[in-house]
Amino acid sequence: MDPVKKLRRSLKQQHADYIESRAQKDLAEVQALEPRVLDAYQFISKQSGSVSREPIFRAADLIAWLGRLQPKTIQELGSGRSSVVFAAWCAKNGAQHIAYEQRDYWRDIVEEAISIAGGLGTVVHVPMVRVGGIGAKFTKVLAAEIDLVYVDGPSGEDRTYHTHDGRCINMDVPEHLRAGHRPKAILIDGRQNTRDLLWGMPEAHEYELTKQFQRTPEFASATDYVRHSSMLLRAR
Ligand SMILES: C[S@@+](CC[C@H](N)C(=O)[O-])C[C@H]1O[C@@H](n2cnc3c(N)ncnc32)[C@H](O)[C@@H]1O
User: Fold this and answer.
1) What pLDDT is stored for residue 223 in this prediction?
2) Which CATH number fits domain 3-233: 3.40.50.150, 3.30.160.270, 2.30.30.100, 3.40.50.10330?
């Protein structure tokens, strides 16, 4: 066989093996936290008719973050499969979880999923409002003291926002920081426009900025294995 073809085939195989071994490791980590998380995921997929492309990999990443941060209070913005992981972790670690959710029917689905997983978490229906042409926020302010904020919503009601991807930027967290609050950690799921805004704020200097999520080609994202951007409050 042509040596270049042979090399390409071998690299492809190594890549496939790597993905497979990561997938097995991620699955084991989710099962170690709570095997019923997988039942809850199945329930969400069935209810929504959408099977997320990388749910286990994201769950494993969240579990790793939770282990590292050990939050006592978690505020989530936008609910879904991630809420199940947070709630399952809280049930085992004596922490509190609350999610704001703009869609009441979705809140019901997520709450049911949390109970399937034996989790301890609350999903509250909170309407959203648009903020200018680029953002949206929930109509309920965040609690003053939060250890971990997870930003994955609101999702906006359409794709008419003036951002690179047409998706809205979360405006709850910028407001929260401007009001002088300092969550110990802020995790941002994907949302590069939200990340860019937060990282550009003067308050970002009080945080360590790590692990940027970038929309990269399949191979690079498999080697980086990074989904969440993060802001960790520096020691004072
Ligand atoms: C990106 S999703 C949040 C997902 C969640 N944080 C997670 O990681 O699974 C943002 C919003 O989209 C909406 N959403 C997500 N999946 C949905 C579905 N299958 N059907 C209807 N709404 C959905 C919900 O309102 C949710 O708050």
Assistant:
1) 43
2) 3.40.50.150
